[in-house]
């Protein structure tokens, strides 16, 4: 639409510009002013037409007023400015050639109708928006309430359906709400739990801290605590629970409620108790078992000052025989009866009886006065075993050996105490059984040392803790050295040098004697070779020989002959340089199988000496069939010759033996020669060789060298 | 069993709401007396507050048109408040028909009202969610239905970040949202600041106190701190400026002095 300058259209636009400039500052529109003016222009045109229309159209005028509201002129100031504007400029710019009076009157009516239209529209818009926002608020509330309801319904489902008991109480302990699970646990149908307050739910087994934790929680000093707690059910039975109590605070952090979650652990606890019982009791006799006993012993040994303990360690005598002859079932019945009787012996507080296994039982007494109590206890046990036990219609006499250990708490470990008791029991047993013995530290120490040496033996051989000393064998006729006996020693790191009597029996027992014996043989043969290299194959009186002891165990070892041959060959030593000493007792009753290896060795040229002759009640006639070439008279025969004059009976015996030996073509060696008189006497009696302190104590191989030199110059 | 993040314990319309106060400043009647009372108290300190809001609306209008001109046809308006006239979907469709818009607000009343306004509109929706939980926004069915994150999106954070305290780390939330946007996306942002307010800071502080009193603290940030929200964006000309100076269509000198309170800017992701 073209607007001629100052034409009607141009004037209309100028009116709209004035109008928009007046109103724009008070609108809420986000439009720019030109945009806003563009919105007002059609309204201005309608006003212009209304001004000049033949008839006044009040409805249209009201519509223009209402349109202002649609243009977001919601501030009533916009209406005021609009009416000012219309009043001042509408007739001026849009009146054209009309009657000024009529136009003014029309303008006034227009303004009235616009104001009414604006007010009506603003009222309608306000009401609509208020309605809309109220609806929105309502709807939002509904949504939130729904969410809350859903959330609460879920919480309630958890609360009601939970397997754990849940209860809520106020800080005074008044129970406000509990769930079904909790009521089931307590076996009640009353959700108020009989109106009892939380503080009344005490039980004698409550841990000391239980109620301190409770107090801290309700005072707001603690957020939660966890305890194991027992409750009495209304029917008097006990409910055990894992109880967790939490403090609930309000939005401002003020403590408000306590929330208890409890898990019924009664069954589990019973099961635990049963499992513990089974783990700590012997299935056969029902007595406490070894682990339970150790627990109690440990407790007794850790008791405070002034506390003592007494322990009886009982082993039935000859129980194995019962088992072997009557069967295990009978043996078991016997053990059950013994267990019952023992149980009856230890009924005082602090006393207990346990079965350690097999036919081994222990009785423990504790307290300050165990010194005499333990004796009484042992006496009661011995008495309890007096009456025969009837098993399968047989009356079995049961005897036992008891080792008693008694002492103050706090000094020994359970293992030490039990070992002492065990050792002492064996002492009682080896003293004939059917008795009790009191532990003796020295006896214990001996056994313990013996045990220690036994276990240390194998390592000792590996570490080279053994060494050999040699004691010369001297020819009584000319005093020349004919050889030496090899004597093994153990240089023990703690006990010092130990003689063979201390460890050879142990080595025999464990079988270590075989490697040890082989080692001794090797060393000795090597030494023999050294001597031979130094002094020649033979001395004036014959070949130098080395005497090595053979233990009974070695004697029966299948490798004896082969080992010996190998050792000799490896050293390049002739068999006649070796003499193996075998004790008389080892050969008593020896059959041909046992003698065969010795015979083989003898055939090869190895001398066999019968050691300790005269102590083993040997059948003299038997000597003939033994592959023996030397008799070594036991020192007991020569001891009396240290005195002067010698016992004539002894002289006769020795003389007889020598005569017998010589008639069988056996040489005679005597041991334990300590004096010159003795030596002279033995020489007169016809003994061939001798050894003893008179000549030399056992010593290092070099000492023989000295003796040999002496001998050579003698 | 967590309560939905957006759902408050209850709707208490006796407590003023910032979105209804905003509506009041814009001449609307989507508000209750408590809202108007709070708005009037704030206006005692800053009588020109409605002009600030209007300037916000005007900036948003220009920014949306700018985005549409850039070819963006997806809009995510977080903190949309009470829909009144000149909403994003109206402006956007005016410039680019078929534009899709998702509004996000955590005020259940604003959300309910938006749902009523948008009823029957298949290309616009509202999500009840919190700016501080971007994952909930991005994973909402509405966003998944209407917004293709593989194409540029205009993310509108108009007059919302100044309601998030530093302790809640608004920077992290903005960064997380930004990370989800395709290259060429725009961040449209306004933020309150003491800078530019034609009043001494103490006096403007009175208005800030009103918001604190209604438990919606207004966090005034410096221009520098506001600029940090655009980390990773290239600023669109003329950068971060007072609202009337951002690509004005008329003469900024004509604007009310209050319109220059705070800052507005648009950034583009590389």
From TrEMBL, chain A:
Domain PAS stretches: 151-221
InterPro entries the record matches: Biofilm_reg_signaling, EAL_dom, EAL_sf, GGDEF_dom, Nucleotide_cyclase, PAC, PAS, PAS-assoc_C
Domain EAL: 450-712
Classification via CDD domains: EAL, GGDEF, PAS
Domain PAC: 225-277
Ranges of residues in domain GGDEF: 307-441
Annotated protein name in UniProt: Cyclic Di-GMP phosphodiesterase RmdA
Automatic annotation (TrEMBL), chain B:
Molecular function via GO: methyltransferase activity
Keyword Transferase belongs to the record: yes
Keywords in alphabetical order: Methyltransferase, Transferase
Coiled-coil region(s): none
GO terms, biological process: methylation
Domain of life (superkingdom): Bacteria
SUPFAM superfamilies registered for this protein in UniProt: S-adenosyl-L-methionine-dependent methyltransferases
Protein name as catalogued: SAM-dependent methyltransferase
Source organism: Streptomyces parvulus
Lineage of source species: Bacteria, Bacillati, Actinomycetota, Actinomycetes, Kitasatosporales
């Amino acid at each position: 639409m073209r607007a001629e300058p100052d034409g009607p259209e141009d004037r209309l636009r100028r009116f709209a510009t004035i109008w928009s400039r007046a109103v724009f500052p008070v609108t809420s529109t986000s439009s720019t002013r030109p945009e806003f003016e563009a919105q007002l222009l059609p309204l201005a045109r309608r006003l212009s037409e209304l001004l000049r229309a033949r008839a006044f159209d009040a409805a249209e005028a009201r519509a223009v007023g209402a349109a202002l509201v649609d243009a977001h002129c919601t501030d009533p100031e916009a209406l005021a400015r609009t009416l000012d504007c219309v009043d001042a400029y509408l007739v001026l710019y849009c009146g054209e050639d009309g009657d000024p009076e009529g136009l003014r009157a029309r303008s006034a009516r227009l303004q009235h109708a616009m104001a009414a239209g604006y007010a009506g529209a603003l009222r309608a818009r306000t009401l609509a928006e208020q309605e809309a926002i109220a609806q929105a608020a309502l709807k939002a509330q509904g949504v939130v309430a729904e969410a809350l309801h859903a959330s609460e319904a879920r919480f309630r489902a958890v609360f009601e359906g939970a397997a754990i008991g849940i209860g809520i109480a106020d800080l005074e302990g008044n129970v406000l709400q509990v769930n079904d699970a909790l009521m089931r646990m307590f076996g009640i149908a009353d959700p108020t739990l009989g109106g009892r307050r939380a503080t009344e739910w005490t039980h004698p087994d409550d841990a000391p801290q239980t109620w301190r934790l409770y107090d801290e929680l309700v005072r707001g000093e603690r957020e939660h605590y966890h305890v194991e707690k027992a409750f009495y059910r209304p029917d008097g039975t006990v409910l055990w629970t894992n109880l967790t109590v939490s403090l609930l605070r309000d939005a401002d952090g003020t403590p408000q409620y306590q929330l208890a979650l409890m898990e019924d652990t009664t069954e589990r606890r019973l099961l635990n108790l049963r499992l513990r019982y089974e783990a700590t009791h012997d299935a056969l006799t029902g007595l406490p078992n070894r682990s339970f006993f150790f627990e109690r012993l440990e407790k007794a040994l850790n008791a405070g000052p002034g506390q003592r303990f007494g322990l009886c360690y009982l082993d039935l005598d000859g129980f194995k025989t019962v088992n072997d002859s009557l069967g295990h079932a009978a043996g078991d019945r016997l053990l059950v009866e013994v267990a019952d009787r023992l149980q009856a012996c230890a009924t005082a507080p602090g006393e207990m009886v346990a079965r350690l296994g097999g036919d081994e039982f222990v009785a423990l007494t504790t307290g300050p006065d165990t010194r005499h109590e333990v004796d009484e206890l042992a006496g009661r046990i011995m008495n309890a075993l007096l009456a025969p036990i009837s098993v399968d219609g047989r009356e079995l006499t049961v005897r036992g050996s008891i080792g008693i250990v008694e002492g103050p708490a706090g000094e020994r470990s359970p293992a030490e105490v039990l070992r002492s008791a065990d050792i002492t029991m064996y002492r009682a047993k080896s003293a004939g059984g059917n008795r009790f013995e009191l532990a003796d530290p020295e006896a214990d120490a001996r056994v313990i040392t013996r045990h220690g040496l036994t276990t240390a033996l194998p390592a000792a051989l590996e570490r080279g803790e053994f060494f050999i000393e040699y004691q010369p064998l001297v020819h009584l006729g000319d005093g020349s050295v004919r050889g030496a006996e090899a004597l093994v020693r153990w240089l023990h790191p703690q006990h010092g040098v130990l003689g063979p009597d201390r460890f050879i029996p142990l080595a025999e027992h464990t079988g270590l004697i075989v490697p040890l014996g082989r080692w001794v043989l090797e060393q000795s043969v090597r030494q023999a070779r050294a001597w031979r290299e130094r002094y020649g194959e033979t001395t004036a009186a014959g070949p130098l020989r080395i005497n090595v002891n053979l233990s009974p165990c070695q004697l029966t070892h299948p490798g004896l002959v082969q080992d010996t041959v190998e050792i000799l060959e490896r050293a390049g030593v002739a068999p006649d340089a070796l003499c193996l000493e075998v004790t008389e007792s080892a050969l008593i009753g020896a059959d041909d199988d046992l003698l065969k290896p010795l015979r083989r060795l003898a055939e090869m040229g190895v001398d066999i000496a019968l050691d300790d002759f005269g102590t083993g009640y040997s059948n003299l006639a038997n000597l003939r069939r033994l592959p023996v070439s030397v008799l070594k008279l036991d020192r007991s025969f020569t001891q009396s010759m240290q005195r002067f004059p010698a016992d004539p009976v002894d002289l006769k015996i020795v003389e007889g033996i020598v005569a017998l030996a010589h008639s069988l073509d056996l040489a005679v060696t005597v041991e334990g020669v300590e004096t010159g008189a003795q030596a002279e006497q033995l020489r007169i009696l016809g003994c061939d060789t001798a050894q003893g302190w008179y000549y030399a104590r056992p010593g290092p191989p070099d000492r023989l060298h000295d003796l040999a030199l002496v001998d050579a110059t003698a | 069993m967590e309560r939905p993040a957006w759902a408050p314990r209850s709707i208490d319309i006796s407590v003023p709401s910032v979105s209804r106060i905003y509506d009041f400043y814009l001449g609307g009647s989507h508000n209750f007396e408590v809202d108007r009372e709070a708005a009037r108290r704030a206006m005692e300190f800053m009588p020109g507050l409605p002009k600030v809001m209007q300037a916000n609306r005007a900036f948003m209008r220009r920014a949306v048109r700018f985005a549409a001109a850039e070819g963006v046809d997806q809009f995510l308006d977080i903190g949309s408040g009470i829909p009144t006239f000149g909403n994003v979907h109206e402006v956007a469709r005016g410039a680019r028909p078929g534009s899709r818009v998702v509004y996000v607000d955590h005020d259940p009343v604003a959300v309910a009202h938006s749902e009523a306004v948008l009823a029957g509109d298949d290309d616009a929706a509202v999500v009840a969610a919190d700016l501080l939980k971007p994952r909930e926004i991005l994973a909402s069915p509405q966003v998944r239905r209407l917004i293709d994150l593989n194409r540029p999106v205009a993310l509108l954070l108009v007059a919302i970040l100044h309601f998030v305290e530093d302790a809640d780390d608004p920077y992290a939330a903005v960064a997380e949202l930004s990370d989800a946007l395709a290259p060429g996306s725009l961040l449209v942002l306004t933020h309150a600041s003491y800078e530019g307010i034609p009043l001494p800071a103490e006096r403007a502080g009175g208005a800030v106190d009103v918001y604190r009193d209604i438990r919606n603290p207004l966090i005034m940030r410096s221009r520098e701190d506001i600029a940090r929200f655009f980390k990773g964006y290239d600023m669109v000309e003329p950068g971060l400026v007072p609202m009337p100076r951002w690509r004005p269509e008329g003469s900024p000198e004509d604007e009310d002095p209050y319109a220059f309170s705070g800052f507005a800017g648009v950034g583009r992701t590389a």
